[in-house]
Amino acid sequence: MTDNKTKEIRFNTKGTLSTHLFSAEKKDPNLKGRSVSLMKFFLTLFLLAPTFAKPLEITGTTEPFSVVFDKNGALLGVEYEKGNRVFRYQDGELTFIAGSQSPGGQNLGDVSEGDGGPATKGRFNGMHDLTLHPDGRLFLADTFNRRIRVIDTKTGKLSTLKFTGPPLKSPYTVSINSKGTHLLIADLKNYQIREIDLKSMLIRTVAGNGKRGKPTDGGKATKSPLYGPRAAVYGADGSIYIASREGHALRHVDLKGRIHTLVNTSGKKGYSGDNGPGPQAKLKGPKHLALDPEGNIVISDDNNHCLRLYKVKEKTIHLLAGSPGKAGKTLGDSPLTTKINRPHGARYDSKGGLWIADSMNHRLLHFPK
Length: 369
Prior knowledge:
This protein is mostly beta strands. The chain folds into two domains: 6-48, no CATH class; 56-367, TolB, C-terminal domain (Neuraminidase, 6 Propeller), CATH 2.120.10. The protein is built from two helices and 27 strands. The longest helix has 15 residues, at 34-48. The protein is globular.
């Protein structure tokens, strides 16, 4: 800055940034040195926060837990145990393409029904996640039925994925790699992350030794214990990211098969660290992971009632949506001014818009880019 002047940051009625030069130090000598720091602080917040158009609230679902997009831009999602349906949303129309609103719960055991017939007549129990294969098959984590269900979106037929190897105990999330060759599964109660080769249909373990515990950084992932591996997703480079529910952390399995903690090395639950290094930040019961358009990791920080964003290159963490630690139902002008209640999933659409499964508010939120 020159002439003892700094910039006053203002937002006009359209929400765009404007600046105004003023002689802050002349107005108040005590501001000397502070005015520039304040300007930098607010400018940093502005530059870090994505800008979105007017938001949209979609009701009609019960406990929506995760969403994905098909090649036509339609939003597909699953409902948890009070809904047990697969829904589709496009152009203002919400429909249900699988399941029925039947009671669910872990104590019911295996209540899967409908394989070989239309998915609309299928029965699910506590679905947590879904992912779409490039060929149009929709893979569902039918969690309390302890299986992966598949909907052929061309025929509408339902089936159970059959594979060779140890059975799943509690598949919570599913992820397809970019080539469509492998399916990644967070098998929570086995304390493992599993991977199915979709050609040979062989299943293998890619992280976790079957024991509950905190892994040592740099250790071999398959020989390491895991604390509540609640979610797993392939990164842009094919490596694996894991949300540790009980460990309140984000972990990473690199391409050499080594595991590292990226967020919250302390393992203590809480909320802290925004705009700073990931290892020093705290989470509270993260439940879902997704990628943003740049390959950064969107974390559903469920018990903190917000979304966090881990920037892969910068190794920093940022608040993306919600009011940390405060559940609510307020719909603001942006994700940061909106209150949500235990979000279990989020995705970006092809235009860069953010969609949130606001689970306990029984709604979907869309913040167009």
